[in-house]
Specification:
- This protein is of the alpha/beta class.
- The chain has one domain (3-376): NAD(P)-binding Rossmann-like Domain (Rossmann fold), CATH 3.40.50.720.
- It has helices at 3-9, 62-69, 74-80, 97-111, 126-134, 147-151, 173-190, 224-244, 263-273, 289-298, 320-331, 351-357, 364-376; strands at residues 13-14, 25-27, 30-32, 87-90, 117-121, 138-141, 158-161, 195-201, 208-209, 248-253, 256-257, 277-278, 283-284, 287-288, 308-312, 316-319, 337-338, 344-345.
- Helix 7 (173-190) runs parallel beside helix 8 and helix 11 crosses helix 13 (364-376).
């Protein structure tokens, strides 16, 4: 079946707007535009992968999954050759952190450079910490709310900031603001001389009409304590970047997805267990977590003063009804719907990131097929819903 037919079947829109500057030529697999050329060296990068030339039709084990999620791109390997200082990943114990840290380690090894990759987290899971160490990633246990502990962290020329609080934010507003705003201030003081990529979220944007994803230049309009605190996090990085001339890239991510966690996993599980699917939030974006990892690490060389913002998500705009009907077909399960589809949703346009790094290697169709197969075979999940369909900002 052709990609065009598949896209129409799933009501997939390509998120690249016609208003983006016309693409003039390709260089290293990246389509170049007048807007993208402003960011200079980032255009030398690409999302070509170094190891697996062809994607597997299915993923059988967690080990295979995590190897794919941590496989570095050729662009990342090239960028890593110019970065011999240590890289530290703050908040590395979450959903993305372990595979991102492993990808950074593998990129340095492939580039044949000596580089420390350090993962920092509370590390509530001893197993997760051990697996990172086996992969060659140094680990440091640290409560990032402890400013003295932050100041004692190892030196690093590059920082990936992934710490934050989302789930449970509605019942713990004060802690949410401390996690999302106080920690960034401490980190910026500690790493004032480093390059920083800081994770943010598309939740800082308002709900927008389907087909009109938010762009980086759009004014934020966060709803709820969580989203407002995430905008506060961005403002902390912006303030300290300007004050100390610290290069920063802010990544507004929505939503990273793999086979154990993500919006597509939520929908697949609802179909598999017979839970009705609510159509009220009728559209969404996703990106394969491995592609998000690669973009995040490559964004280090795009860091600027004041910070630049990059949306990170996939190019497709997916419709909930169509995707769940496809899951029902692939898994041979009935699906029932409730609610009336609203005309707006939390959607982002990642054209700027695609101009810099190229489009993701793993598309939505491939993700849907992998997740359907994984679900039918009883594959593990992280046991946590994304709550992508929350519309009032209460997480």
């Amino acid at each position: 079946m052709s990609c065009g037919v598949i896209g129409r079947m799933l009501n997939i829109r390509d998120g690249s707007p016609a208003s983006a500057a016309p693409y003039r030529r390709r260089r290293n697999g990246v389509r170049s535009s007048s807007r993208a050329r402003r960011f200079g060296p980032c255009l030398a990068l690409s999302l070509l992968y170094t190891g697996t030339p062809v994607l597997p039709t299915r993923i059988d084990t967690i080990e295979t999954l995590e190897d794919l999620l941590s496989e570095p791109t050729s662009g990342l390997v090239d960028a890593t050759r110019g970065s011999t200082g240590a890289l530290i990943v703050l908040g590395a114990g979450g959903k993305m952190g372990p595979t991102l840290a492993r990808m950074a380690r593998r990129a340095a090894d492939t580039a044949q450079i000596t580089r420390r990759v350090i993962a920092v987290s509370r590390f509530q899971s001893a197993t997760a910490r051990q697996r990172l160490e086996v992969a060659g990633v140094e680990t440091v246990a640290c409560d990032l709310l402890d400013e003295h502990a932050v100041m004692a962290l190892p030196d690093a020329t590059d920082v990936i900031y992934m710490a934050g609080m989302k789930f449970g934010a509605s019942g713990q507003a004060a802690l949410t603001w401390a996690e999302n705003c106080l920690i960034p201030a401490s980190v910026c003081r500690r790493y004032a001389s480093s390059r920083i990529v800081a994770f943010s979220t598309g939740n800082v944007y308002p709900l927008v009409p389907a087909g009109h994803g938010s762009r980086e230049q759009d004014l934020p309009a966060p709803v709820g304590e969580y989203a407002m605190s995430c905008l506060g996090r961005e403002r902390m990085f912006e303030y300290f970047s300007t004050r100390a001339s610290t290069p920063v890239t802010l990544l507004r991510l929505n939503y990273a997805c793999e086979l154990r966690y993500g919006v597509l996993v939520d929908l697949a599980r609802r179909v598999w267990t017979g839970e009705p699917v609510d159509l009220t939030t009728g559209y969404f974006n996703v990106i394969w977590q491995g592609d998000a990892n690669a973009m995040s690490l490559m964004a280090l060389i795009c860091a600027t003063v004041p910070p630049q913002v990059l949306n990170v998500t996939g190019p497709e705009e997916l419709r909930v009804r169509a995707v769940t009907e496809e899951f029902a077909r692939l898994m041979d399960r009935p699906v029932t719907f409730i609610g009336v589809e609203a005309g707006d949703a939390l959607l982002s346009d990642a054209s700027r990131a695609f101009a810099l790094f190229g489009k993701p290697r793993v598309n939505a169709r491939q993700l849907i097929e992998w997740i359907a197969d994984w679900t039918v075979r009883g594959g593990d999940t992280l046991g946590r819903a994304t709550k992508f369909d929350v519309r009032d900002g209460r997480f």
